[in-house]
Amino acid sequence: MTTFDSRSLGQASELFELTIAELRPVAEGVVSLELRTPDGADLPAWQPGAHIDVLLPNGIVRQYSLCGDPAQRDNWRIGVLREPASRGGSSYVHEELRQGGTLSVAGPRNNFSLAEADRYLFIAGGIGITPILPMIRAVAAQGKPWTLLYGGRSRRSMAFLEEIGGLAGGEAHIVPQDEFGLLDLQKFLGEHLPDTLVYCCGPAPLIDAVEAKCQIWRSGALHLERFAPSDKAANKEKGSFEVELARSGKRLVIPPYRSILDILEENGCKVTNSCRAGICGTCLVKVLSGVPDHFDDVLSYEDQEAGDVMLVCVSRAKSDLLVLDL
Amino acid sequence: MVDVRRVRGGDGLAEINDELDQILDSVVENTRLATESFFASYDKNPDPKVLAAWLAPRAWREIDYVFLLNEQIRRYGLEFERKHITLLAKQSFQEAEHYEIVGRAIESLGGTVPTSVPPEAKPWSDFLWECLERHPLAAIAAWNCSETSASGSFEPTFKAGERHDFAEVVRVYKQIETDEKFHVGLGRQVLAAYAKTDHDRDEILRAMRGMRDIAWKTFTPESVAQARSA
Ligand SMILES: Cc1cc2nc3c(=O)[nH]c(=O)nc-3n(C[C@H](O)[C@H](O)[C@H](O)COP(=O)(O)OP(=O)(O)OC[C@H]3O[C@@H](n4cnc5c(N)ncnc54)[C@H](O)[C@@H]3O)c2cc1C
Ligand code: FES
Ligand SMILES: [Fe+2]
Ligand SMILES: [Fe+2]
């Protein structure tokens, strides 16, 4: 297991082989996976809103929010919705993964962290409940008031309803569409509440609607996370892959026959280099997640195998996405 | 993590790798000591002209590498893979850049950039050209030793740079330090890829040993003093 500190993220970013200690359906089309280290050791600490990268054996990398309890350091829980039109991420999780098996994951990382406020309004659509659930738990534990608006197609498709029922100090509005129609956003967002922060996660139409309603709110009041895949990934050419720059969150597509180094430079990201041929080792970059495909002549086989550094002038990716410490 | 001496690409040096490493370690150490001793004397009398004079044979090395590399390619290049021709040419281009930037640093210190071989660099230059005549891999071995030796001078140069505030020289040598990793790795790869016979290996060893005894000398304060009094 390799560990390194990602300064940009201010948190450890690690690559692990974890055991799938439990895999069970928690709603129609949703499974929850409980992941543990093989030796039962603690996993890195995380804060609500964090997600991990799951590196599936078919080479696909997908992000899943941690939806368990951060206080339980010996396991991570994720909830995965089976996308009907899956290109191989969630379908693999649902069809191929087995309880007792292992799973490569990287992280945790957090682009959706919970800021201080007097009160909170949480809006979740469908599987978007996953990052929201630990947030509510944290807010409830602090004894602060919270409101949850949770929509879904039907009650059966909505995960973690029982758990939500057990959380104190707030009000949960559970809104299955087949019973009550769409969420009444006007009622909750129609008036700006200066002491409230809004956290929203869900399908794109919901997020867009919430964004539109929050125009009248002060800037910074709305925090959101989109689960949607980027257009770029869908139009992926054979031999191309994506690189994410961890410090800025910027994503770049690396086409076939172009080097990562070229594309980084074209996008104003400077990396020391000299030979551009995999000989000098000066373009070494840390890999925070994803699986590099090494083509250099100078990294030791052990370093190549470990996969936590790469020479970006020649090496490429075996996974769809590489997250680099840049 | 990255050791350019362990670059992959051929096993022609397997039997002599240890000996080559010993030669290289020793020349790096001698160059480090020579550089430290130069800056110890420079500390007592920090005259930019003296620093410029110390850099002059280094500037000559850069431009002489350009000549050597191109002659190496012209004479022997077609025995190599095309990618190695390209990479040697790339090295040649970078050596030309080094001549340009070291030259600029020398001028900023009030010195003169050599346009013919300085007397104190002559033994070094003569040895390389003689190697080039002798064997297709000998000059590469000799300059690989010489370029490796330079790595011993970087640290003491950067430290002195902080004491005496010669930022331009430090900047130039930071760039050169990066490129030198390429040149050292490339040389080692080419030698390992094309050395086939014991004769090849003997020539490589001869060239490296010869350069081990020369490469560090122009880094000493004595060499600079002699050049300045001439
Ligand atoms: C930070 C983060 C956290 C996440 N957390 C969770 C979580 O907790 N639980 C969870 O289930 N998922 C989560 N996701 C989403 C998850 O990472 C995957 O995107 C999801 O599982 C779908 O992957 P897939 O390979 O099955 O489907 P994909 O093949 O990626 O397709 C998914 C859907 O998008 C459509 N689609 C495909 N390409 C495009 C395109 N270019 N533009 C628009 N639509 C397209 C497809 O038709 C399909 O309906 C998260 C995503 C992010 C970024
Ligand atoms: S630039 Fe030399 S190894 Fe990448
Ligand atoms: Fe040089
Ligand atoms: Fe060089």
From TrEMBL, chain A:
GO terms for molecular function: 2 iron, 2 sulfur cluster binding; metal ion binding; oxidoreductase activity. The keyword Transmembrane does not apply. Signal peptide: none annotated. Residues 13-115 form the FAD-binding FR-type domain. InterPro entries: 2Fe-2S_ferredoxin-like_sf, 2Fe-2S_ferredoxin-type, 2Fe2S_fd_BS, Beta-grasp_dom_sf, FAD-bd_FR_type, FNR_nucleotide-bd, MRET, OxRdtase_FAD/NAD-bd. Keywords: 2Fe-2S, Flavoprotein, Iron, Iron-sulfur, Metal-binding, Oxidoreductase. Residues 241-326 form the 2Fe-2S ferredoxin-type domain. This is Oxidoreductase.
TrEMBL record, chain B:
This is Ferritin-like domain-containing protein. SUPFAM superfamilies: Ferritin-like. InterPro entries: Ferritin-like_SF (IPR009078), Haem_Oase-like_multi-hlx (IPR016084). It comes from Borborobacter arsenicus.
